[in-house]
Design brief:
It contains 13 helices and 15 strands. It has 366 residues and is an alpha+beta fold. It folds into two domains: 153 residues, 2-Layer Sandwich (60s Ribosomal Protein L30, Chain: A), CATH 3.30.1330; 196 residues, PurM-like C-terminal domain (Phosphoribosyl-aminoimidazole Synthetase, Chain A, domain 2, Alpha-Beta Complex), CATH 3.90.650.10. Strands 10-12-7-13-11-15-14 form a seven-stranded mixed β-sheet. Helix 4 runs parallel beside helix 5. It is globular and about 70 Å long. One of its GO terms (cellular component) is cytosol. Pathway: Purine metabolism; IMP biosynthesis via de novo pathway; 5-amino-1-(5-phospho-D-ribosyl)imidazole from N(2)-formyl-N(1)-(5-phospho-D-ribosyl)glycinamide: step 2/2. Belongs to the AIR synthase family.
Length: 366
């Protein structure tokens, strides 16, 4: 049977070798709550660990890495894309104040190369370690004829838990709250269809060294997503935090608007930070400007905490100690007619009819 299947382009033995190569990395993410190890039909996680919660709410999220995988394939670098996957999935969970518990992954490929699959999973496992998430299982599927021999895609899902009384979000946000921006490590995993369009139009080579970046363009574009989960959970445990927003697809304003209550507007000062050089480079390549890109790219802001004024100093210091550059991005106020007239106003994103974001000022670049 396996010989017949291999004639169709599926290598079962390669899949078994890939599992052996990834076992150690996966095992490092698992604590006493995980039962059964690698290879079962389903991952088992001991829910009795939740018995101390008064009213535990489960939070779940699923996502992929998008077309950033195409650049990883072009450069033949596969051990960081998994970190991006964890960031896209787990850092969405922490927005609600939930602690991630476990994650599963799915990898589809045109040809199963054990070492390549193991490299991808090693990145996923590393991201899970950094976010205190157990990697309890996954699936690798070989799809010859659907994907090219060197092509693959990755996706994942995670589950977390939060005490009902501790859920963060729009209900907690108040007039006068302060927006604290946490720096991104780069583009993270969003806007890569635009990036690839720019690359195709300019002819820029991924291997070319770019002086403004201090490294090659490919190295910059494959920089893994910064993981905020641990820092955000620690911050919410030690300071009053009203909401978080993860700046992913759609950019800063559209994601911030999702966690604001109706009637309030977040005033964002574009001049409050210096936009990293990669964004100006891409703007030039697209024959555009940074304002036109702010609905697609994060422009250097990966996560935002909304906190009361009395939490600003302590929260900023704590996040900085955690290795995340943090600054005051703006404040929350009541929406006025002036906001509509003099700012770029964003509201009603992702189907959420809540507050609005007013983008004002001019971006600072090097």
């Amino acid at each position: 049977m396996s010989d017949l299947y291999s004639q169709a382009g599926v290598d079962v033995e390669a899949g078994d070798r890939a599992v052996e190569l990834m076992k150690a990395a996966v095992g490092r993410t698992q604590g006493a709550e995980v039962l059964g190890g690698v290879g079962g039909f389903a991952g088992l996680w001991d829910a009795s660990a939740l018995r101390d919660y008064t009213r535990p709410l489960l939070a779940t999220s699923t996502d992929g890495v998008g077309t950033k995988v195409a650049l990883a394939q072009r450069l033949d670098i596969h051990d960081t894309i998994g970190i991006d996957l964890v960031g896209m999935v787990v850092d969405d969970i922490v927005v609600s104040g939930a602690k991630p518990l476990f994650m599963t992954d799915y990898i589809a490929c045109g040809r199963l190369v054990p070492e390549r699959i193991a490299a991808i999973v090693s990145g996923i496992a590393r991201g899970c370690e950094l976010t205190r998430t157990a990697l309890v299982g996954g699936e690798t599927a070989e799809h010859p004829g659907l994907l090219g021999p060197e092509e693959y895609d990755v996706a994942g899902a995670a589950t977390g838990v939060v005490e009902a009384a501790d859920v963060l979000g729009p209900d907690r946000v108040r007039e006068g709250d302060v927006l604290l921006a946490m720096a991104s490590s780069g583009l993270h995993s969003n806007g890569y269809s635009l990036v690839r369009h720019v690359l195709a139009g300019t002819g820029w080579e991924l291997e070319a060294h770019v002086a403004d970046l201090g490294r090659t363009l490919g190295e910059e574009l494959l920089e893994p997503t910064r993981l905020y989960t641990a820092a955000c959970l620690d911050l919410a445990a030690s300071h009053e935090v009203h909401a978080y927003t993860h700046v992913t697809g759609g950019g800063l304003a559209s994601n911030l608007a999702r966690v604001l209550p109706a009637g309030l507007v977040a005033h964002v000062d574009r001049s409050s930070w210096q936009v990293p050089p990669i964004y100006s480079l891409l703007a030039r390549g697209a024959d555009s400007d940074l304002v036109a890109l702010e609905g697609t790219l994060n422009l250097g802001v990966g996560m935002i905490a909304i906190v009361p004024p009395e939490s600003v100093a302590g929260a900023t210091a704590q996040l900085t100690r955690a290795g995340i550059p943090t600054w005051e991005l703006g404040r929350v106020g009541v929406e006025t007619p002036d906001d509509v007239t003099h700012h770029t106003l964003v509201t009603g994103t992702k189907g959420v009819r809540g507050g609005a974001v007013a983008m004002g000022g001019s971006y600072r670049t090097t």
